[in-house]
User: Which sequence fits this backbone?
């Protein structure tokens, strides 16, 4: 395992990726510093200080990952995969439920979410699997990548963590598509998946998950009487969507115009430090703040895509594309959920939301992109791939 | 479709951009285009800043005179939000704590070190307490109980927040927890209210708000009928409780802007409670109360055709003003006694009815073919049924000899009706008796708005598991038969008209009149006429109520003497009947009961009914 040369070390700080990423982290910290959230009936602040722990850990882990050649990581991909599966099993059987779910593993005073790590592990594993194969270009050949994805998905669903589990799907499809899998095969699978939506909704989802979908559909329906609408939406399954939208509405162009400059609707929004952090950004900084955040995301994603485009090594390309899909879809789904365009799935906004595991994995992902960017490959792929 | 690698990446990028377009569009709609709508909804989601109360609807009698109405009063309140907004830093531990109600620096207590620096003698509250008729420490304790509860909740929620956030969230929680002033005392005297308002600086968190208190100009005569409005989460009772959704209206709410302007950003207009008009004329109600006199009893008078209640008197009664808000003040030792004024005896008490049910036994026997008006039964004072002599309480006081139906009703012969029912019992005719009884409303709710329907239906006219003596005793209203005076009056209205009216006391609520409801009793008029004729003869010479001159009003009635206790002769004395329309008055049916007397039904109720009718139809009748 070799370390970076001095030239590569300089390139490891790939500014086009790191600059927007660090700006996003700073933006998240600033908004977390304004937050006061009830925990067990008691208001708690200082979320930015807690987040700094996750950031520090993420930077250290990222630095380590940036030093190790990505090929060395790829060569141990299946080992990481097996270890991560084991952790997912341990979480299910050896931890006590928190908020009715088994997601966290307490390690050295740090609450690790193996499902968050699995997203990165899956990317690395799929990259390793796909890189020199062409079997995925046949319909039968898609079986192995799908199996690699569905196995952790099933364990994550068991926790239950629908949001994280669903995120594995765009990662898989994005990587296969970029690697040159036949579009008709992928479309056929999407079609088959669409046919299975109702049975999954009917028998596969838990009651609260169904209620979220029902609530989402109900809030899309037009309503006439404003008061009746309020009563309907203000309670029950639509509570979060309703208050999220109220917080956005109070945000206006550049933040709420109240005497104390605070967005009162945010007081009533649960999980505002994690899943609904975008409502905090858009509610306190207004539409312009939200736009800035989206632009920063777009810049980060473009930089990742550019690295993927310029690199010649298929595995490196796949790593970048997997990470692009992870950030793009996680961000998109989170923002869409906050704005009421998609149902609530319980998904953090990368680099912004409070959460040690999420921050750790996000920073390591970006370190991996920098790692790839710092090592221009002289290998030649199979044609395009 | 074969795309090269750069194009595939472009497609992935495009998917993100295309996915973001509707999201951005939605964001723009919510934050910019539809911002006002969402701001209004955000405003509607929060607690209102002010409550606009509305007066409760007035309950009026048939002539529009107020029986129950809201009067102005003053409430002493704790302004929790204002109280929470004030801070004090503890001199000992430096903790930021809320102002207590006391004012001076030296009179504050820290919530962390619990250093006792609060008022020791309640000196500032002394003038107010004196005017309220409380000891200063009692008032202080009452205030502190409420304040402590509020403070504990807010302090717990604030946790370890410090600085600006603490202040901002305290304000938020203050609004959340303290959005309504906490009422410390309702209806305080004017002098006390004046003292509080004049010396606000002494007790900044105390305030006086204008409020309303239920007044009952109708007096004790209407106490049982009107009951109490709901208080503090209670449901209220009688008409005030039953009609509460109509009477109370809906309060209004005001939301202010959260900027410096404090302008009203949302207003929900209050909806006033509706006025309710009763079918009862308070003059008639007073006549009915006067007729009962000083004892325990009830008199129910109803319009025989429509079921409109004309009088619903229950004695003894109580002063509703004194117990308008709560009955807790009532002396506990008298609350549950038989003679308690709190019990209504006109529509809520189930009583043994005695002989007033005999006409219905006769109707059942006629309808089932067990009797003819001309059939003669010999009364030898006793009845032997299946080889056993019936109990003493079911015998006649004297041997009546040969009796036909007409004479049996007029002279109230027990044996005649028991014989009829015993025959029905032997020959599977008993269900017909129950059926006819129910057709006349026995064992059924009367329709009165404030009646406890289920209790009446469960307990009244119920014979499941009854012994033979009780089954036969039902013929003369003894044993397990229980009826309310309102049920009896309704049944006699059915006997008078051939249609059973649903009783009601509400003539109209707001602009909506109550439509009279009646139902067929399902019996031919020819079958009822001999019974009616027998009842008319009760007030004629030879009848049990012949001595009171009732026949001049064309009354058809029946007396009843229900034996209540066997160790000492105690009766429930009854009289029930009906009269035709006359003197500008509608046809009426009535039922009177005097409880715990030593006289029979005719002797107790006859003179009272005569006096009532005399005044009801005017002095010229006398």
Assistant:
């Amino acid at each position: 395992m070799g370390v970076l040369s001095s030239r590569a070390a300089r390139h490891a700080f790939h500014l086009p990726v790191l600059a927007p990423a660090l700006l996003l982290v700073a933006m998240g910290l600033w908004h977390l510093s304004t937050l006061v959230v009830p925990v067990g009936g008691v208001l708690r602040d200082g979320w930015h200080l807690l987040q700094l722990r996750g950031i520090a850990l993420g930077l250290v882990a990222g630095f380590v990952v940036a030093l190790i050649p990505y090929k060395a990581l790829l060569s141990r991909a299946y080992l990481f995969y097996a270890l991560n599966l084991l952790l997912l099993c341990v979480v299910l059987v050896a931890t006590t439920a928190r908020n009715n779910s088994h997601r966290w593993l307490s390690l050295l005073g740090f609450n690790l979410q193996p499902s968050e790590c699995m997203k990165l592990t899956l990317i690395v594993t799929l990259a390793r699997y796909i890189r020199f194969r062409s079997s995925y270009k046949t319909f039968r050949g898609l079986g192995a990548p799908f199996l690699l994805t569905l196995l952790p998905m099933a364990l994550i669903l068991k926790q239950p963590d629908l949001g994280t589990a669903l995120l594995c799907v765009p990662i898989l499809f994005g990587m296969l598509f970029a690697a040159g899998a036949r579009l008709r095969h992928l479309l056929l699978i999407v079609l088959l998946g669409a046919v299975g939506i109702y049975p999954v909704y009917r028998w596969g989802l838990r009651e609260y998950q169904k209620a979220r979908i029902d609530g989402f559909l109900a809030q899309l329906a037009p309503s006439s009487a404003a008061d009746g609408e309020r009563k309907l939406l203000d309670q029950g399954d639509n509570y979060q969507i309703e208050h999220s939208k109220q917080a956005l509405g109070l945000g206006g162009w550049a933040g709420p115009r109240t005497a104390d400059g605070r967005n009162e609707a945010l007081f009533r929004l649960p999980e505002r430090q994690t899943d609904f952090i975008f409502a905090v950004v858009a509610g306190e900084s207004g539409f312009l703040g939200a736009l800035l955040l989206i632009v920063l995301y777009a810049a980060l994603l473009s930089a990742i895509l550019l690295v993927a485009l310029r690199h010649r090594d298929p595995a490196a390309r796949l790593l970048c594309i997997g990470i692009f899909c992870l950030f793009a879809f996680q961000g998109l789904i989170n923002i869409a959920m906050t704005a009421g365009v998609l149902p609530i799935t319980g998904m953090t906004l990368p680099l912004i939301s409070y959460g040690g595991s999420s921050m750790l994995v996000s920073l390591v992902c970006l370190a991996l992109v920098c790692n790839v960017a710092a090592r221009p490959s002289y290998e030649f792929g199979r044609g395009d791939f | 479709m074969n795309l090269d690698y750069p194009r595939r990446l472009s497609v992935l990028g495009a998917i993100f951009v295309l996915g973001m377009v509707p999201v951005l569009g939605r964001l723009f709609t919510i934050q910019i285009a539809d911002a006002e709508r969402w701001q209004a909804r955000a405003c509607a989601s929060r607690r209102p800043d002010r409550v606009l109360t509305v007066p409760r609807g007035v309950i009026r009698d048939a002539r529009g005179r107020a029986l129950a109405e809201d009067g102005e009063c003053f409430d002493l309140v704790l302004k929790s939000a204002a109280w929470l907004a004030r801070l004090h830093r503890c001199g000992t531990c430096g903790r930021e704590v809320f102002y207590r109600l006391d004012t001076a620096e030296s009179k504050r207590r820290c919530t962390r070190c619990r250093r006792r620096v609060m008022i020791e003698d309640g000196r500032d509250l002394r003038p107010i307490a004196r005017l309220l008729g409380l000891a200063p420490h009692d008032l202080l304790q009452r205030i502190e109980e409420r304040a402590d509860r509020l403070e504990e909740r807010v302090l717990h929620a604030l946790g370890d927040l410090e600085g600006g956030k603490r202040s901002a969230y305290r304000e938020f929680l203050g609004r959340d927890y303290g959005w309504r002033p906490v009422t410390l005392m309702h209806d305080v005297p004017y002098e006390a209210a004046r003292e509080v308002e004049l010396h606000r600086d002494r007790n900044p968190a105390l305030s006086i708000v204008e409020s309303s208190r239920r007044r009952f100009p109708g007096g004790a005569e209407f106490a049982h009928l009107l009951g109490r409005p709901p208080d503090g989460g209670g449901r209220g009772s009688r008409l005030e409780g039953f009609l509460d959704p109509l009477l109370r209206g809906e309060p209004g709410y005001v939301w202010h802007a959260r900027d410096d302007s404090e302008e009203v950003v949302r207003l929900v207009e209050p909806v006033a409670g509706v006025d309710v008009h009763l079918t009862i004329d308070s003059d008639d109600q007073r006549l009915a109360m006067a007729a009962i006199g000083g004892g325990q009893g009830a008199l129910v008078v109803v319009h025989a055709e429509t079921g409109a209640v004309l009088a619903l008197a229950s004695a003894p009664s109580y002063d509703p003003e004194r117990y308008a808000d709560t009955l807790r003040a009532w002396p506990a030792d008298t609350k549950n006694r038989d003679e308690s004024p709190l019990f209504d005896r006109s529509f809520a008490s189930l009583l043994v009815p005695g002989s007033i049910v005999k006409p219905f036994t006769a109707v059942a026997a006629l309808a089932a073919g067990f009797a003819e008006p001309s059939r003669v039964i010999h009364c030898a004072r006793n009845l032997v049924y299946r080889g056993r002599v019936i109990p003493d309480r079911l015998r006649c006081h004297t041997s009546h000899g040969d009796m036909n139906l007409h004479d049996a009703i007029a002279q109230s012969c027990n044996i005649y009706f028991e014989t009829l029912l015993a025959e029905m019992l032997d020959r599977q005719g008993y269900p017909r008796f129950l059926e006819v009884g129910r057709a006349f409303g026995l064992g059924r709710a009367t329709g009165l708005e404030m009646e406890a329907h289920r209790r009446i239906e469960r307990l009244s006219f119920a014979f499941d598991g009854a012994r033979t003596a009780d089954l036969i005793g039902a013929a003369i209203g003894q044993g397990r038969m229980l009826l309310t005076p309102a049920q009896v009056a309704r049944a006699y209205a059915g006997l008078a008209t051939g249609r059973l009216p649903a009783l009601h006391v509400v003539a109209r609520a707001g602009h909506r009149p109550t439509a009279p409801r009646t139902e067929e009793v399902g019996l031919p008029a020819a079958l009822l006429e001999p019974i009616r004729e027998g009842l008319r003869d009760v007030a004629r010479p030879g009848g049990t109520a012949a001595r009171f001159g009732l026949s001049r009003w064309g009354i058809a009635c029946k007396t009843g003497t229900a034996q209540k206790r066997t160790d000492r002769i105690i009766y429930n004395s009854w009289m029930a009947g009906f009269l035709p329309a006359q003197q500008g008055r509608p046809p009426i049916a009535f039922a009177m009961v005097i409880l715990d007397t030593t006289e029979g039904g005719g002797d107790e109720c006859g003179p009272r009914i005569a006096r009532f009718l005399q005044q009801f139809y005017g002095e010229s009748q006398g």
About this structure: The longest strand of chain B covers residues 66-78.
